[in-house]
Amino acid sequence: MKKPKIITLKAWFLAVFVNTLVMGCAAVGPDYSPPEISVSPAWHTQLKDCFTEHEVDPESLAEWWTTLNDHKLSGLIKRASANNLDLKKARARIRESRARRGITRADFFPTLDVTGSASWSRTSEDRGAGKTSDLYSASFDAGWELDIFGGVRRSVEAADADLQATRENLRDVMVSLLAEVALNYIEVRTFQTRLNMAEANLEAQAETHKLILWRYQAGLSDELALQQARYNLENTRSQIPTLQTGLQEAMNRVAVLLGEQPGKVHDDLVKREPIPVIPLKVAIGFPADVLRRRPDVRQAERELAAQTARIGVATADLYPRFRLKGSIGLETLSLSNPSSSDSRTISGGPGISWAIFDAGAIRNNIEVQSALQEQALIKYETTILDALEEIENSLVAYAGEQQRRDRLLKATQAAKNAADLAQQKYEAGLTDFSNILDAQRSLLSFQDQLAQSEGTVTSNLIRIYKALGGGWSTMAFEENTSFLSEKTNEIKK
């Protein structure tokens, strides 16, 4: 009996060599090249004295909140970075994407399977002598698809880009989260400042009401002045519950951003403290630098790279698939001597499959992937425009609110002087009470507007840092920056 030909190690080494050789061949589908970005050399907004175009220090921008010199804010941001649920979900997405890449990369390697079975059968006495027989089998099977046309390589390329995109998504979530924590913290301090102003005015108006009541009882003032003093006092008192409600809501929002239940940070923030002082100068750099740093732009570019690779995956289906198969096994009717050479089975050889007719399904899938690539490119370009718009708007808002705050500061000082003068003239009998009433109302209004404006100035600074892409660690800043090639430095004249 002629024995089957054994597949030698030499044949397998030859298969490895062939696969290595074809791996060096160009994969089908388009090769990805980063899209060119043309941006203006400078910001469209005319920069005020509070800005400088000096290059932004990545390490300082990563911890931009330290410029506000508020240890309480720094502590809240640290807690949010550790416990926020959106961050945890983004980290889980990275683990998922990494595992998916591992699944895709597994297609580079051969598959090995071990199978075994044991069966027992007995024929009926009507057909024979009721003979009983056993069959035992075991096999070791191997298969390997040669990635000749690069379908697997394109799949891995797409998986790598997907993983990089999820990392950028984590950074984008971090940028937004830290900005939201700071914005709500500033809102807490703004409400506390407004409450201080309202309570101080309430106390002054209560003293005025006592004075008018005393003069009314002494016959030195009429009831009209008394009622005017009273409704002015009650109007101010009515504003305090609204401010307290806003303060509680802002504290609750901070707690949720920290991944905690509402009310958990009240003890930390109950002590009223002033709105943090902003730095004198803010370095914003140049447009091209900002785009390279923003995680949302980087994520959109990686998504475009992944979708470009998927066109190659779809294109590879047009070509034949080559596969090496081999199997070594045992089949025996008895376990007394399973290692006998007569029990061995060996098979192996190459295989090919090719979709000759599919009614256009493969080419339509290529068209689908190409259309998705076009959409990804449009999304990338839209993200860039949105980023530039956000930065320009934040620069305008920050500079404009600073001007408004400076004018409100002067108006508030003038209103305070007017209130003092009206009080003095009324006590001297040189004016009626309506002037005091108007002066006190104006003072409270200007003080409240000034407090809100100071909070808005600091909030707009936070929005600038967010628009600049600040808040994610610089440790990974150097990785995944190849997508912004030297062509991104080409400036639109």
Describe this structure in words.
The chain is an alpha+beta fold and about 500 residues long. Helices cover about 60% and strands about 10% of the residues. It has helices at about 10-25, 60, 70-85, 85-105, 150-215, 225-255, 265-270, 285-295, 295-315, 360-425, 435-465; strands spanning about 50, 110-120, 130-145, 280-285, 320-330, 345-355. The strands form two sheets. Strands 2-3-5-6 form a four-stranded antiparallel β-sheet. Strands 1-4 form a two-stranded parallel ribbon. Helix 3 (about 70-85) crosses helix 5, helix 5 (about 150-215) runs antiparallel to helix 9 (about 295-315) and helix 6 packs parallel to helix 11. The longest helix is centred in the middle third of the chain and has 67 residues, at about 150-215. Residues about 1-5 and about 475-493 have low confidence and may be disordered.
